[in-house]
User: Fold this.
Amino acid sequence: MLLNSVTTGGDMVLLYASNYHDIHTVVNVSRRYDPKKGIAERLGKDFMEAIKKEGFLDIKNDTGGVAFRVTEESLMDRLSTDMHESCLLIGKECQVLTVHGSDDEIIPVDDAVEFSKIIPNHKLHIVRGANHCYTSHQAELASVVVDYINTALQQDNTTSN
Assistant:
């Protein structure tokens, strides 16, 4: 089984891999190592007061629509997540690729380096000049991920035959 962080909710793929050892390959794209960081920048200065008052906080996207909703429960869940301890539990048989843009304005590239320090079977690829959305670097992102997945699938096929 293969999981990637773009479609399945960020750090959730790494948390899954730390709890369940039924996946062989994880692609981790531009994820935060310390979930406690960056919250005020992302949610606004008075985010907790707004959540307490309304019961939730809607985060808007560039077009004014709701990108996602933050509840007090979901925020407390995030704040109690220890990615360091979780990543230490990822088995050596699980291959992890972390891809991160060197010019990511939302999550510093240092977060990717931290993942590479503690995940046993890890490969780190920094896309030079890429921002958080890989605006001008999507072809390189796709190429790196597809190449990694193809290699992992070939290895799986070789070991299962």
User: Anything to note?
Assistant: The radius of gyration is 17 Å.
